[in-house]
């Protein structure tokens, strides 16, 4: 058996293949029925949770949640996805599938296992393409253009159910047989199943063990034996008695103030879930402030210690890489990215980082100076961490593409100056007299967000000026990848390449300055002495360079905020939310935080564990007691 890995790595499943069927070496059991695993999944889990009929009754913009105790090969998930595709609403509604796996399959093993089911191949290919790297924690996969969302937790089952925030409509109590994997069937686990259920929740399990039946009954489920599949004589099905109440899914209207990368990803996310959205900005279109640069690097700097802050950054990075694949070759350019160890301090930091952590090579791995130079296409002065799945974006064009959706009403040239709750709705007033009314509102207005929060008091948000420099391609030894250190350098787009950005905490000048261009070039050439083509560099007139200034919004602890706004420290200010403080990493954090906030706005399962949700809370911004204005 393999030994535990350093964080955040997780040990993969060890498989033995017998007659083409995978078997767990650790547990000595098969992942699915040797005769017909797909039909077994349909019989045990779909039929006995009555899923095809229940799927057909889900409202447009509604959702249905299935939770599962063991993901394994993903066969139950694919069978459910196929049934949702055949029986669920055609658009808007979302199937959420929440599953746990302590020993996940590698991508290669998953591919081999799912090849046994030709009829599932279109779905299997999408799952395999988006299958996450083997690191502990939560992974949210958005599939079928948003109609299916898979929340996959790699880790211990009880830890997962304590960490995740959801209520299931149906349970698949799968996993290896209780005698072979007793940890999966503990009383604590069954108590967690009850805690994540609501009146009317159903369950099914291939097991008919008396202890399991009694534990489910004690937890409040009405349980009965029923014929199993094939040679399996019995199985169990159950239901948590309903209380007679039903919760409809009314498609509430949502206004998003601010059309930068945060606002545009959120608006698009909500629209794809079937919710009507109004996207508001003071400019003539999306992506004009901090998200308006021609190019932007998509990266994070992972901490030496794998703590909550590092985990959030890692989840944001891997989710963003999956999210942007839709626009590969258009606005997303996954060239790979080098984080140089350009100073002795950074070299030491990277050395300690590699000693204390285990990351799959698909996320990052170290390269020496020669390898870094070869990857970059220009000489580097040091080794680096190589992120093969990262790259650069065209933020303005991306924002325009995100905002272009029939479910989004685009409202430009409106400078919002007041948000007021009235009669259960939010009234959003513009300086020109425009009023927009919505059930819920989200402030995504970057460095002006604090002024729009309708409570009195001080908020620990700050604005930081950043100037980028546009270097002529003719003056460069053009790199093949994004290179980061004290500055970032992108491969050229057309005839320019963007480098930057300055970090000017106490400077409110909105115009580019020669001094900031000089600082960018000084830092760039210190990082990459050979980046400028010598003859062209000698003729480079810094005073004539183009560039751009934008103001990043960050918080006192340099961590973003996403969640409901509070009236004071304890009471939510009904249906008003905040998404801001993304700092210089907005391109990386925006997709995940938009997904998380959309989960909250729509009452759907959260894509983050509870402890990371706490890191994003808005109430930590309050410097003193505040009251509604």
Describe this structure in words.
With 629 residues, the chain is of the alpha/beta class. It folds into 3 domains: 225 residues, Vaccinia Virus protein VP39 (Rossmann fold); 173 residues, FAD/NAD(P)-binding domain; 146 residues, D-Amino Acid Oxidase, Chain A, domain 2 (2-Layer Sandwich), CATH 3.30.9. The protein has 17 helices and 33 strands. Strand 28 and strand 29 form a beta hairpin. The longest helix is centred in the middle third of the chain and has 17 residues. The chain starts with 14 loop residues before the first strand and ends with a strand. The mean pLDDT is 94. It catalyses: 5-aminomethyl-2-thiouridine(34) in tRNA + S-adenosyl-L-methionine = 5-methylaminomethyl-2-thiouridine(34) in tRNA + S-adenosyl-L-homocysteine + H(+). This is tRNA 5-methylaminomethyl-2-thiouridine biosynthesis bifunctional protein MnmC.
Q: Can you summarize the main beta sheet?
A: 8 strands, mixed
Compute the number of strand runs: 33
Quaternary structure annotation? single chain
Helicity range: 25-40%
Stretches where pLDDT falls below 50 for ≥5 residues? none
Q: What's the CATH first level of the largest domain?
A: Alpha Beta
Report the sheet-strand fraction.
25-35%
Structural class: alpha/beta
Spatial extent as radius of gyration: 26 Å
């Amino acid at each position: 058996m393999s030994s535990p890995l350093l964080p955040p790595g997780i040990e993969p499943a060890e498989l033995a293949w017998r007659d083409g069927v995978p078997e767990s070496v650790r547990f000595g059991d098969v992942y699915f029925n040797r005769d017909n695993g797909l039909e077994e999944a349909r019989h045990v889990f779909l039929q006995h949770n009555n899923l095809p009929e229940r799927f057909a009754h889900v409202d447009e913009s509604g959702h249905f949640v299935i939770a599962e105790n063991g993901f394994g090969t993903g066969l139950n998930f694919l069978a459910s996805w196929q049934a949702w595709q055949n029986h669920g609403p055609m658009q808007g509604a979302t199937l959420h599938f929440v599953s746990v796996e302590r020993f996940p399959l590698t991508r290669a093993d998953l591919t081999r296992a799912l090849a046994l089911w030709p009829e599932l191949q279109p779905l299997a290919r999408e799952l395999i393409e988006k299958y996450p790297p083997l690191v502990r924690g939560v992974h949210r996969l958005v599939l079928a253009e948003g109609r299916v969302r898979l929340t996959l937790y790699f880790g211990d089952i009880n830890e997962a159910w304590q960490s995740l925030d959801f209520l299931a409509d149906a349970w698949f109590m799968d996993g290896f047989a209780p005698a072979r994997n007793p940890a999966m069937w503990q009383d604590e686990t069954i108590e967690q199943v009850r805690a994540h259920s609501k009146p009317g929740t159903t369950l099914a399990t291939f097991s008919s063990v008396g202890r399991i039946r009694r534990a489910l009954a004690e937890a409040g489920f009405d349980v009965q034996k029923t014929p199993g599949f094939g040679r399996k004589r019995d199985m169990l099905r159950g239901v948590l008695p309903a209380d007679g109440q039903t919760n409809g899914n009314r498609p509430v209207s949502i206004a998003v103030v601010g059309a930068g990368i945060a606002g545009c990803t959120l608006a698009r996310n909500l629209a794809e879930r079937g919710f009507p959205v109004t996207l508001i900005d003071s400019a003539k279109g999306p992506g004009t402030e901090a998200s308006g640069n021609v190019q932007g690097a998509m990266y994070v700097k992972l901490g030496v210690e794998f703590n909550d802050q590092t985990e959030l950054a890692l989840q944001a990075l891997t989710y963003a890489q999956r999210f942007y694949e839709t626009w590969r070759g258009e606005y997303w350019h996954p060239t790979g990215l080098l984080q140089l160890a350009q100073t002795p301090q950074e070299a030491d930091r990277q050395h300690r980082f590699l000693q204390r952590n285990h990351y799959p090579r698909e996320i990052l791995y170290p390269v020496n100076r020669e390898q870094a130079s070869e990857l970059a296409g220009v000489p580097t002065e040091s080794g680096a961490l190589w992120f093969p799945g990262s790259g650069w974006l065209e933020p303005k064009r991306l924002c325009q593409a995100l905002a272009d959706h029939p479910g989004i009403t685009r409202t430009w040239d409106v400078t919002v100056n007041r948000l007021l709750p009235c009669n259960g709705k939010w009234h959003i007033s513009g300086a020109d007299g425009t009023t927009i009314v919505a059930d819920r509102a989200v402030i995504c207005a970057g460095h002006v967000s604090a002024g729009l929060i309708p409570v009195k008091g001080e908020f620990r948000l700050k604005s930081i000026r950043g100037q980028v420099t546009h270097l002529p391609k003719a003056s460069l030894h053009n790199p093949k990848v994004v290179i980061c250190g004290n500055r970032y350098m992108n491969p050229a787009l057309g005839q320019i390449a963007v480098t930057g950005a300055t970090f000017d905490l106490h400077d409110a000048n909105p115009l580019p300055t020669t001094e900031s261009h000089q600082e960018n070039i000084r830092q760039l050439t210190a990082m990459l002495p050979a980046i400028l083509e010598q003859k062209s560099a000698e003729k480079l007139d810094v005073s004539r360079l183009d560039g751009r200034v934008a103001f990043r919004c960050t918080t006192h602890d340099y961590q973003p905020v996403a969640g409901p706004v509070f009236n004071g420290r304890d009471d939510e200010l009904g249906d008003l939310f905040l998404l801001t403080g993304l700092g210089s990493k907005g391109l990386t954090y925006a997709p995940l935080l938009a997904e998380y906030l959309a989960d909250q706005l729509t009452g759907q399962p959260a894509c983050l564990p509870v402890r990371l949700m706490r890191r994003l809370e808005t109430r930590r911004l309050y410097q003193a007691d505040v009251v509604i204005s």
